[in-house]
Design a protein that fits this description.
The structure holds two protein chains of two kinds. In chain A, 38% of the residues lie in helices and 21% in strands. By secondary structure, chain A is an alpha+beta fold. Chain A is globular, with a radius of gyration of 18 Å. Chain B is mainly β. Chain B has four helices and 22 strands. Chain B is elongated and about 75 Å long. The two termini of chain B are 41 Å apart. Classes of the chains: A alpha+beta, B mainly beta. Strand 8 of chain A pairs antiparallel with strand 14 of chain B.
């Protein structure tokens, strides 16, 4: 089980909120969970985090900080059982990201819950413009007093020789996807890879916290090769847009 | 003594409606009556919930989700099931509601309540609702139609025994057949809701017998727009996928249906079809089903986790996530729809009685029972009615 939580700096005590997330998922990992329940497992933990953060907010407000509101993002990766197979269940809430790195290609799996993402989807700006947009750090969904705390879920089959990357916007805001791909391709060991990514992000001038977790699956023998990328490109050709 | 018309009202089951202009969302367990001015997409999403099997409480939550200020009036009737009492909620003065109990009829007056008036009781034999302005020529002569479930426009509604004690419930239904093309001018001025009229005279006035039930096949869900609905035929075409609750992407915070701040209510959907795979598997379509060699589920919420079905593809002809089959919404509500997910080699669909067609990627096509989906590599999927 892997989780990255990015407390919101511009808000009150985001670090407390992100610590709550890490604690709750650690507790889940220790207590164990039913892998057949899928996203419901993560959903429950997120609900507990939400409740704890709300309680924390309330105590602060009672203490006089009238509009106190702690917030944090969360990205989670854990193994579940689905239809007799073990798969990745990924969850995203906020603008931290989950990528899949396969065959030298880095593919963003999660969709950011951010203002600029909404602008991209409505066609007002391009992805490139988003990286320079003044409001690129404004988030539309997160844990904390943010309206809805509905995470997005993804289920992916487990494939040998594929890597998952979980990281905060302190990384993706500083480094281009291509460069991240290079760094991942160049490091056999996943912890090495994560270190290099974070170092590069910090060196690129990030004053935002940069956190990265790289996950490799070991012990799987490669089965028939996968054409998921080919299939996505074929849809892109046919429709003119990625799904 | 009463005509041998189909005894379709064993006390609590079955609604009787008089066509009109207010909305009624009806299932065997719950009836909602809503003013004609209400936003159509709201009615459609309540219908989808109700038809999906939502309970009285779930529907009430969804109805109230946007607050009361946008709801000038409503009636919610929960028929008793499993020993639960009848529950009748009435808001506003747009309608008159009469509850028939063991000791007579009792009218529910909600005109002074700021929220609504509730009447919950086990001692209820029937309930009837008349919309203000009804009977003024609109539906008169086009008498009560019996219906189990549906989304309709009504001027009046009744369930159970709504006549005074010494008559049987079947009699009031014996009025003119809904001839919707031209509503007959009322020959019978005494046609009040709780006045039985003279059934025999009515019978003489119109030849064909009343339809026993809307002409929908019994167990499968009623079509979204059962025949007795009044002309507004623009209703069906307005309901495309965008009216499903859940936002259209142009607003920032996507608001889920349900009470703000709480988890979204679960998608309560019955299976709309069963898929039989050439390999022997059977899968019910009660949520999104993704099929392929190694299918992936992208971007779903906790309450709508798709079902991933892996098929073998020895010649690698089938893509990782090849097709999606899901319950349709809007005009496709009640059927399954299939979408090719951008597969490399494409998907062929053979609808019963038609030539094979290649699915266009990303376009959902409604599936008829008996349709066959061909993914290549010898893998075919036959679509049949749910549970068969």
């Amino acid at each position: 089980m892997f989780v990255v939580a990015d407390g919101m700096g511009g808000h009150d005590r985001g670090d407390v909120a992100s610590r709550i997330v890490v604690e709750e998922f650690t507790a889940l990992a220790q207590a164990g969970y039913d892998p057949h329940r899928g996203s419901a497992v993560v959903d429950e933990v997120l609900a507990r985090c939400q409740a704890r953060i709300a309680e924390y907010d309330q105590r602060q407000r009672d203490g006089g900080a009238t509009s106190f509101s702690a917030g944090t993002t969360a990205v989670v990766a854990l193994l579940v059982e689905d239809a007799g197979e073990t798969k990745w269940l990924l969850a995203n809430l906020g603008d931290s990201r989950i990528y899949r790195f396969a065959g030298e290609q880095l593919e963003q799996i999660s969709v950011d819950h951010s203002l600029v993402q909404e602008l991209i989807e409505s066609g007002e700006i391009t992805a490139d413009e988003a990286t320079r947009h003044p409001e690129r750090h404004v988030i539309t969904r997160a844990l904390g007093g943010f309206g809805t705390a509905d995470a997005d879920y993804f289920v992916l089959p487990i494939v040998a020789e594929e890597r998952l990357l979980l990281c905060t916007d302190g990384v993706t805001g500083m480094l281009a996807d291509d460069y991240i791909a290079e760094l991942l391709a160049g490091s056999e060991d996943p912890r090495d890879a994560a270190d290099r990514v974070v170092t590069a992000a910090v060196r690129a001038g990030g004053d935002d916290n940069a956190t990265a977790v790289v996950i490799d699956v070991v012990g799987l023998s490669a089965t028939a090769s996968f054409d998921s990328d080919e299939q996505r490109s074929s849809l892109e050709q046919k429709l003119g847009a990625r799904p | 003594m009463t005509e041998a018309e189909a005894p379709e009202t064993p006390t609590a089951s079955g609604w009787r409606i008089t066509p009109g202009s207010s909305y009624a969302v009806l299932t065997p367990a719950v009836g909602l009556v809503l003013p004609a001015e209400i936003d159509r997409s709201r009615v459609a999403s309540l219908w989808q919930l109700a038809d999906g099997g939502a309970s009285f409480d779930e529907l009430l939550d969804a109805l109230l989700a946007e607050g009361l200020s946008t709801l000038s009036a409503f009636v919610v009737i929960g028929a008793p099931t499993d020993g639960e009492p009848w529950r009748v909620l009435v808001r506003g003065a747009a309608q008159s509601v009469t509850v028939h109990g063991a000791e007579g009829a009792h009218s529910v007056d909600a005109s002074v309540a700021t929220t609504w008036v509730e009447h919950t009781s086990a001692d209820v034999r029937g309930v009837e609702v008349t919309l203000a302005g009804a009977g003024a020529g609109a539906g008169v002569g086009v008498g009560p139609v019996a219906i189990e479930a549906g989304l309709l426009r009504v001027d009046g509604l009744a369930i159970g025994e709504t006549d005074e004690p010494d008559e049987t419930p079947d009699t009031p239904v014996a009025t003119a057949v809904p001839a919707f093309e031209e509503p007959e001018p009322a020959p019978e001025p005494e046609l009040e809701d709780d006045d039985l009229g003279e059934p025999t005279q009515m019978w003489a006035a119109s030849a064909p017998e009343p339809p026993p039930a809307p002409p929908t096949p019994e167990p499968p869900p009623a079509p979204a727009f059962p025949p007795p609905t009044e002309p507004p035929t623009e209703f069906p075409s307005d309901l495309d996928d965008e009216t499903a609750a859940g936002g259209d992407g142009s607003e920032f915070a996507r608001e889920p249906a349900g009470i703000p701040g709480q988890q979204q209510p679960p998608e309560v959907t019955r299976a709309v079809a069963t898929l039989k795979f050439s390999g022997g598997e059977r899968v019910d379509v009660d949520r999104v089903v993704l099929i392929g060699r190694a299918p992936e589920a992208r971007r779903f919420t906790a309450s709508e986790q798709p079902q991933l079905v892996t098929v073998k593809s020895p010649m690698q002809e089938i893509s990782a996530t090849h097709v999606e089959v899901r319950p349709g919404s809007g005009v496709d509500h009640g059927s399954a729809v299939v979408t090719d997910m951008g597969s490399t080699n494409g998907t062929v669909l053979i609808q019963p009685g038609l030539d094979p067609e290649e699915l266009k990627p990303g376009i959902a096509v409604q599936l008829l029972p008996g349709a066959v989906i061909n993914l290549g590599d010898g893998v075919t999927i036959t679509v049949s009615r749910p549970g068969s």
